[in-house]
Amino acid sequence: MHAPASYYSTRLKAKALELGFDVCGIARADFLDEEAPRLETWLKNGMHGQMNYMANHFDKRLDPRLLVEGAKSVVTVLLNYYPSQPLPEAEDDYKLSKYAYGEDYHFVIKDKLKDLMAFIHEEIGEVGGRAFVDSAPVMDKAWAKRSGVGWVGKHSNLINRQMGSFFFIGELILDLELEPDGPITDYCGTCTRCLDACPTEAIVSPYVVDGSKCISYFTIELKEAIPDEVRGKFDNWVFGCDICQNVCPWNRFARPHQTPAFDPHPDLAEFSRTDWEEITEEVFREVFRRSAVKRTKLDGLKRNVTFAKNSTY
């Protein structure tokens, strides 16, 4: 490990693109001083709803050195999931968030990150580190912002100038000194389309999302009955919601992904309202076998469909 940090950074980024990632950036593994008070306020105001795990490991969320001993760098990768043929999203269609069309992204990205880690060991030698894909207390959007691969928009999603916001984020936290990239400018400007479009008013102010009011929260995280006060506001979303991203002007730059695993199950494209309303355990297991939709289980999906069906517009 005698080459300069810039050399290793260049080689690592090139390998990340070779493995199929769309963007790769690097940040120094420091304490997230800007995010600390924001996270504390967000939790204090109960904006995490029943997502109790968000309140766990507060210190680890803010300091990667508590996750990887001697951590020096955080490598962020982005993987596009924008579909070549979005499923129907007409007013009377039941809707599924684009990220859940295909195979669960946790598996896909983790495999690619393991390959990237193997490359680091081959190319550089003994480097300690861990891969993270939305499954540990890592503030992925904060690290992505610090590494310059995008900025956090007013809807709290990361936006990249070249590809919009339909992508997954993964990290390698390494005890290797790499050359960090700097953050980029926020290009949201005066636009408020995401705030104006959210039917449940979950984006309570620019850059602040009350997670407990979000359609994605109600359809995925909430384990009990969906409250009556949001009836009629779901726009037929039954797993997740893409409204704030669909209206974002930056997503005019979204291009179809190049990852076959993210293509929807062939039967999903043909799903009618009746198919959704009468879905059986057998069909659920087949169509969503390796999908993120499994998180809500069949009962949860049926609850969401029934809620959407019985909502008045």
From TrEMBL:
Catalysed reaction(s) here are: epoxyqueuosine(34) in tRNA + AH2 = queuosine(34) in tRNA + A + H2O
- Kindly give the Gene3D superfamilies that the UniProt entry links to this protein: 3.30.70.20
Q: Where does [4Fe-4S] cluster 1 bind?
A: C188, C191, C194, C248
Q: Which GO terms describe its cellular component?
A: cytoplasm
Q: Where is the 4Fe-4S ferredoxin-type domain?
A: 176-208
Tell me the Pfam families matching this sequence: Fer4_16, QueG_DUF1730
EC number(s) recorded for this UniProt protein? 1.17.99.6
Which InterPro entries does the entry mention?
4Fe4S_Fe-S-bd, 4Fe4S_Fe_S_CS, QueG, QueG_DUF1730
Names of required cofactors: [4Fe-4S] cluster; cob(II)alamin
Listed binding positions for [4Fe-4S] cluster 2 are C198, C214, C241, C244
Query: Its family?
Result: Belongs to the QueG family.
Name assigned to this protein:
Epoxyqueuosine reductase
Q: Which organism is it from?
A: Spirosoma sordidisoli
Q: Which gene encodes it?
A: queG
